[in-house]
Design goal:
EC 2.8.1.8, 313 residues, 13% strand, 4 iron, 4 sulfur cluster binding, Aldolase_TIM, Lipoyl synthase, TIM Barrel, metal-binding
């Protein structure tokens, strides 16, 4: 089990009202930062492919994290005929104040979802599929078995690689890992998201050490499967803290890392404290490579599943 010496991590449960009051307090004390020019996105002139993907997902009653999380890269990815499937519904049991995905009591699992994902994968002729999910703390296995069913179904398409971007399976890690040991993906991804000092604010209900342990333990049971993690910047973290997180990820066997800019989905979410410049991202890329990561993707619009197939090759 991973343990970091002298780490100052304080993760505690917060009441919803306390979290919201903190967010509102932070917003009232800070001016809204103007979005820099390097974050402005041009919409493609041809919307046919984008609408095609949206209609296919709608017809099959499937969700994409691209739409549910208001991803800034949606138009580019959909225009290229790719999407990241979000399984286990569209309602998350967590209330992370940076995330645009709906929160509340989830609906029943769609048992036909694995087959529908396989059908859409065939329809779009996808060679690389990313499966992510909302957190399902209400399920005994955190949703791991449903991930496995999707993986098993997609294995019927021999030329398709599968990446899973999983939640932390809080308290159910052993159950989930036993399942993934039997049904391993081609890439195992779990986002660390930010620095431990800000976890109470950014990821209430999550635990930095537990997330590192999840990555470490998966690597121990499936050493041949690459592990991957992502960090979002601009929430008040310091450079030395970011480097420390990168060192931790490397120490638990992570080989692929993504570093991108946090962007506020709405006025009700955490505000951006700083926009990281392309030059600063380039510096973090050099630092990450010097630490020994095999693949590093840094940039303002980089997301964990953005061009995921290129990250894998």
């Amino acid at each position: 089990m991973f343990q970091k010496k002298k780490i100052n991590v304080r993760i505690k449960k917060e009441k919803d009202t306390h979290i919201i009051s903190n967010i509102l307090s932070n917003k009232s004390q800070s001016l809204t930062l103007k979005k820099p020019k390097w974050l402005k996105i041009r919409l493609p002139s041809n919307l046919k492919k984008i609408n095609k993907i949206k209609n296919i997902l709608k017809n099959y009653k499937l969700h994409s994290v691209c739409e549910e999380a208001n991803c800034p890269n949606l138009s580019e990815c959909f225009n290229q005929g790719t999407a990241t499937f979000m399984i286990l519904g569209s309602i998350c049991t967590r209330k992370c104040p940076f995330c645009a995905v709906k929160k509340g009591r989830p609906l029943a699992i769609d048992l036909n979802e694995p087959k529908k994902i396989f059908q859409v994968t065939n329809k779009l002729n996808l060679k690389y599929v990313v499966l992510t999910a909302v957190s399902r703390d209400d399920l005994k296995d955190g949703g791991a078995n449903h991930f496995a069913k999707c993986i098993s179904e997609l294995r019927k398409k021999k030329d398709t690689k599968i990446e899973i971007l999983v939640p932390d399976f809080r308290g159910k890690e052993k159950i989930a890992l036993n399942i993934f040991n039997r049904y391993p993906p081609d890439v195992f991804n779990h986002n660390i998201e930010n620095v431990p000092r800000l976890y109470t604010e950014v990821r209430p209900g999550a635990n930095y050490i537990n997330s590192l342990n999840l990555l470490h333990q998966f690597k121990e049971i499936c050493p041949s499967v690459p592990t991957k993690s992502g960090i979002m910047l601009g929430l008040g973290e310091e450079k030395k803290e970011i480097i420390s997180v990168l060192e931790d990820l490397k120490s638990v066997g992570v080989s692929i890392v993504t570093i991108g800019q946090y962007m506020q989905p709405s006025k009700y979410h955490l505000s951006v404290k700083k926009y990281i410049t392309p030059h600063e991202f380039k510096e973090f890329e050099k630092i990450s490579l010097s630490l020994g990561f095999l693949k590093v993707f840094c940039g303002p619009l980089v997301r964990s599943s953005y061009h995921a197939e290129k990250q894998y090759i």
